[in-house]
Amino acid sequence: MRLSVGCAMWTHRAWQGRLLAHPLAPQDRLRHYASWCDAVEGNTTFYATPTRETVASWAAQTDPGFRFVLKLPKVVTHERRLTDTDEPLRAFLDAIEPLGPRTHALWIQLPGSFSPADVPTLSRFLGHLPRSHRYAVEVRHPAFFTDARAIRLLEQALGGADAEWVPFDTTAFFATPPTSDAERDAWTKKPRVPLRSVALTDRPIVRYLGRDDTDRTVEGWQRWVDVTVDWLREGRSPTVFVHTPDNTDAPVLARRFHDEVRARVPGLDALPEPIPVGPLTLF
C-alpha cells in the first residue's frame, strides 16, 4: 500500500533558500526535492529528449522507489499525433533507460484537438509500445468527458494496453474568478474539463490544480482525499500531483495532502524528512 505525491517540477525559484537549500548545484537539486516528495512530473521531456547522461544523474539523485511520470515528447504526441513515431520514440526510450524502475509511467498527454475519432490511432499506438513500461494517457477533448460512447471507446482502448487515464482536475481552480497574476495567467492556459475520478488500473495518477490561496486549495482537494483513501483500501497505489498557479508552496501542499490521507489510513508509510535548508546548529 503506497501513496506517492509530487509536483510539476523539482526546481523552482520560489523554493530556493526556503524549502530547498540555495545555492545548489544542478546535480543536487533533484536529491533535495526528493526529500520532500517521492514523485515528480517529467514535463521537461515534452519539449526535448534529455541525454542519457542527464537521465543517469536523475537516477543517481533518487532512490529506486522514487516515481517519475515522464511526458512523451511533443513530436510524438502533438506534431506527429502518434503516427510515424518510431524514430523519436526509440530515442526517447533509450534516453530514459538509466532510470530503471523509477520510471513509474510514461505519460501520453494529447492535444485538445485529439477527438474520439482519433481513438483508433491511439489504440494502434498503445498496441505497439513495449510492455517494459506502463502508460498513462491524458485527454482534453470535451467529448471524452460528456459523451458516453466516447468515454467507452477510450476506456476500451486504454484497457487493452493496461494504461491509465490521467485526470487533470481544474474544477476548484475555475470555480471562482482569478485573484492574482499567476491565477490570471493560468486562467487562459489550463484546460476546463469536468471532474473524472475513475481508476482503470492499480496505479492511478491524478493531477490537481488548486489556487494560490492555501485554504481554497485544501478545500478543493477533499474529494481527492476521499477517493485516494478508497483506492488505497482497494489495494491500489496512487500518485497525486499537486499544482497551484504559482507553485510557491507546492511541495508543502503535496506533503499536507499525504498527511491528510495518512491520518485516515494509518498503515501508510510516512514521507521522508526534508533535507534541512541551512546547516544544523547546536543552539
TrEMBL record:
SUPFAM superfamilies to which the protein is assigned, alphabetical: TM1631-like
Coiled coil: none
InterPro entries assigned: DUF72, UPF0759_sf
Family matches, as Pfam families: DUF72
Protein name in UniProt: DUF72 domain-containing protein
Organism: Micromonospora orduensis
Lineage: Bacteria, Bacillati, Actinomycetota, Actinomycetes, Micromonosporales
